[in-house]
Amino acid sequence: MMRRRFRRPDHSVPELNMASLPDLIFTVLFFFMIVTHMRDVEKRVTYQLPAGTEVEKQQHKSAVVHIYVGKPMDGSTDGYCIQLNNQLATVSDIKRFIESERRQMSAEDQERLTVSIEADRDVPMGLINEVKQALRKSYALNVSYSATERR
Amino acid sequence: MFRHRRRGEIPSLNTSSTADISFMLLIFFLVTSSMDAGKGLKRQLPPPPQDQEQVADILDSDIMTVCLDAEGNMTLDGRTVTLDQLQKEVRQFAAVNPKHRVVALKTDPQTKYDAYFQLQDALVAAYRPLKCSPRISEVVEEQGKKGGQP
Question: Where would you tag: which of A18, A28, B31, B124 has the fewest CB atoms within 10 A of its CB?
Answer without folding.
Answer: B31
